[in-house]
């Protein structure tokens, strides 16, 4: 792909949800081609409400402004940061020993009480005493992004020639995580050699990113060039992760991306990636119908849970 031809497509979800057969087919083709060629796509016309995004960002600003000691009350030692607060500099990419210049909060799946997966997932933590409304705002966004991800996975399955619900069904009651990230001003907090988010691929099936509060996200094309990925107002950026890539025998690549440090030492950034995960027992294994005649499976089957644990160790979130 030449540099000038490089483009992350913008697709309108209404075309798929409410369009005629021809519109739906066009959406499926453009979504799939963009993910196949760049690992990324921008989604407009989705039903994630601007008010939910704003509400979650406001809750995030209020939480991260709290004293460090208060925030650390929501640190669950030994949990790998699966829920609650993860302090500045804790997470590092596979290939970078220096921690990323970010702190974050994880909201996980909430299931009805007595659900068999609840014990494995653990309970969410909520800083309601300090930030009233945090729970309601972030859970509303979680649900809206989960629904949007399900629809995108339906379209992607059609693109691949799979049954429409085959990918979307994997995430029902899945181990998805809403990560609310604060990248402080470099003037306030910095680690020598650190970057906001060092180059990495996402672990999960797909990631949805409501527009961040500032620029900085970049993806790497297959020639090694970096390109800014800036969502237009109200757009959601989506990217393919390693679980998807593995499940489809690399037909949709996971794409390396990063968040670069700003020029200004005063610039603060917030972002809220939604990492869309299967249920833990779902087996990642390329369906036969995706394999061309004579094409070999590149990976042995693995459960989503085993794959996740392997990757969390590599990024320093569990031992
Ligand atoms: O902050 C962003 O825009 C992206 C963060 C990211 O790529 C990640 O947390 O996996
Ligand atoms: Fe990422």
From TrEMBL:
PANTHER family with a match to the protein in the record: 2-OXOGLUTARATE (2OG) AND FE(II)-DEPENDENT OXYGENASE SUPERFAMILY PROTEIN-RELATED
Transmembrane segments: none
Keyword Membrane: no
Swiss-Prot/TrEMBL catalytic activity: 2-oxoglutarate + O2 + 2 H(+) = ethene + 3 CO2 + H2O; L-arginine + 2-oxoglutarate + O2 = guanidine + L-glutamate 5-semialdehyde + succinate + CO2
Domain Fe2OG dioxygenase intervals: 173-278
Organism expressing this protein natively: Geothrix rubra
Similarity comment text for this entry: Belongs to the iron/ascorbate-dependent oxidoreductase family.
Enzyme's top EC category: oxidoreductase
Protein name per the record: 2-oxoglutarate-dependent ethylene/succinate-forming enzyme
EC number of this enzyme: 1.13.12.19, 1.14.20.7
Entry keyword set: Ethylene biosynthesis, Iron, Metal-binding, Oxidoreductase
Keyword Magnesium tagged: no
Highest taxon, organism lineage: Bacteria
InterPro entries for the chain: DIOX_N (IPR026992), IPNS-like_FE2OG_OXY (IPR044861), IPNS-like_sf (IPR027443), Iron_ascorbate_oxido_reductase (IPR050231), Oxoglu/Fe-dep_dioxygenase_dom (IPR005123)
Pathway it works in: Alkene biosynthesis; ethylene biosynthesis via 2-oxoglutarate
């Amino acid at each position: 792909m030449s540099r000038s031809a490089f483009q992350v497509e913008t697709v309108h979800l209404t075309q798929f949800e409410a369009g005629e057969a021809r519109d739906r087919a066009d959406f499926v083709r453009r979504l799939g081609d963009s993910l196949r060629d760049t690992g990324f796509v921008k989604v407009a016309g989705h039903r994630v409400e601007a008010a939910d995004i704003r509400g979650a960002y406001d809750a995030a600003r209020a939480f991260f402004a709290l004293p460090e000691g208060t925030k650390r009350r929501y640190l669950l030692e030994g949990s790998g940061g699966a829920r609650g607060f993860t302090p500045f500099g804790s997470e590092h990419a596979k290939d970078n020993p220096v921690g990323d210049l970010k702190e974050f909060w994880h909201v996980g799946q909430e299931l009805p009480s007595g659900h068999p997966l609840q014990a494995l997932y653990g309970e969410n933590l909520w800083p309601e005493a300090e930030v009233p409304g945090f729970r309601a705002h972030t859970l509303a966004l979680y649900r809206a992004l989960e629904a949007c991800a399900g629809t995108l996975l339906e379209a992607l399955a059609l693109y691949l020639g799979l049954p429409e619900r085959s990918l979307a069904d994997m995430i029902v009651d899945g181990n998805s995580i809403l990560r609310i990230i604060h990248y402080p001003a470099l003037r306030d907090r910095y680690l020598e050699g650190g970057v906001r988010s060092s180059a990495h691929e996402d672990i999960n099936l797909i990631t949805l990113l409501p527009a961040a509060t500032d620029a900085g996200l970049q993806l790497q094309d297959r020639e090694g060039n970096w390109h800014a990925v800036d969502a237009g107002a109200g757009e959601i950026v989506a990217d393919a992760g390693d679980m998807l890539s593995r499940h489809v025998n690399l037909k949709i690549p996971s794409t390396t991306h990063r968040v670069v440090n700003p020029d200004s030492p005063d610039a603060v950034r917030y972002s809220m990636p939604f990492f869309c995960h299967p249920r833990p027992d779902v087996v990642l294994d390329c369906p036969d119908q995706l394999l061309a005649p004579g094409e070999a499976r590149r990976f042995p089957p693995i459960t989503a849970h085993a794959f996740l644990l392997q990757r969390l160790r590599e990024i320093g979130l569990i031992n």
